[in-house]
Amino acid sequence: MKQRSFYHLITPAAMAAVDRDAARSGIDSFGLMQKAGQAVCAAALRLFPEAVRMAVLCGPGNNGGDGYIAAEALRLSGVDVHVFHLGDPALLKGDASAAFLAYRGKVRPFAEYGPCSGDLVIDALFGAGLGRVLDQPVVEVIERINAASVPVIAVDLPSGLDGLTGQPRPVAMQACHTVTFMARKPGHLLMPGRALCGTVEVFDIGIPGRILDAHRGDVAINTPGIWGGSLPKLTGAAYKFTRGHLTVFSGPMSATGAARLSAMAGLKAGVGLVTLATPTEALCVNSAQTTAVMVKEVDDLPALHEYLKDKRMSAFVLGPGFGVGEKARAFTLALSDRKLVLDADGISSFHEKPEDLFEHFAKNAPTHLVMTPHEGEFTRLFPDLANEPALGKVQKALAAAKRANAIVVYKGADTVIASPDGRAFINENAPPWLATAGSGDVLAGIIGGLLAQGMPAFEAAAAGVYMHGEAALRVGEGLTAEDLAAAVRPLQMETAF
């Protein structure tokens, strides 16, 4: 299906190109700035009508221009407005200069601002295009504002926040509300940027969609509106074998719970059959703890090869509770031509020689390996990428996906799903109570269940992450992994858009 542009994020560089193309097309760029500033004014009046004073902090560029427009609109509304400028306003150029000249109130140097009780700060210092580390005097004022806990409305993005990576440079304003324009930027979703932005309002200032579409790129918000058309479709002729067969590998007797969580999650995600492939020592405990999930002895590599002769086995999950070591490596490589979710111990088993894993899956087309590392597992497999400060989470995930020829689900509060072809989704529906033992095992099972039902790997991973978040929201705070697995539901087509 055609992807809808309003789900896509605009990088700061792309947004600058959008602004240039809008001006070249004949659109009045100062008119766009006026709409932006008026939107900020409206948000301030709507959200903080009780503010005693509105302090507008204006920077040396177009973000500052938005601030001057907002300040004049607030002044005309009868608000007590105090404007503080960073740099010499006489040096402003173009639309920012025109905005400064349109403001009829007094201005004072930025260094003179001190937060007071009853203030609302409108942060129009730097937007998403900040390309450098903040100067120390600016850092000190931002730290004073954050320490005072006065409410802040950010214009485009909290000052100091990198719009591409969501990382402070080196600190960022703590906003309770952010007004951005036309589309969100990656920094609005990536942590800690998401927490620093507060609520995010996207205001349409009138740039045509065709111009946005020309620069939107392949980074998007993870939403059913993009991949919903790939969800498994049930027909009246369906039966269990047409709905796929998922195999989840169990670890030894002392560590079987993780695999059972994955197996149950896969079943709840809609797959027709699930088998727990278990070593003999764990056969009794797994048999005693499962009902709808089948159990099969698979002790070693010869037994696995025998099991794989049945081509009806649609997809596999390896890693949850499996154990780190040679057996995990051998089983993984034996599955290099099958749809595989590699999680937890499966990933960590290759930390000494990750190239062995990458080489075995290098020629697969289309990609059918999905890896689901958390921060520690990602660092073990991709230490150079993890420790590269110039890269944001999206860039790290994309580089890892290309290197491994795998879909990489880089987990966290801001899970990134990345494909070797350059596509990446950022997830935002996961509540904080998903941070609990066994949650990742459930996610691996959901993705495996969707793979077994025939979804392409990237779409299955994205849908699995989204379904994982929805299940957690369904249960609520205080959930356990058992609650989470039981709450998994297939997404219905009518609710996917």
TrEMBL record:
Query: Is Nucleotide-binding found in the keyword set?
Result: yes
Q: How is the cofactor bound?
A: Binds 1 potassium ion per subunit.
Stated EC number for the protein is 4.2.1.136, 5.1.99.6
The protein's GO terms of the molecular function aspect are: ADP-dependent NAD(P)H-hydrate dehydratase activity; ATP binding; metal ion binding; NAD(P)HX epimerase activity
Could you say which residues bind AMP here?
A: K411, G412, A413, D414, T415, G440
**Which HAMAP family does the entry mention?**
NADHX_dehydratase, NADHX_epimerase
- Protein's UniProt name: Bifunctional NAD(P)H-hydrate repair enzyme
Give the originating organism: Rhizobium oryziradicis
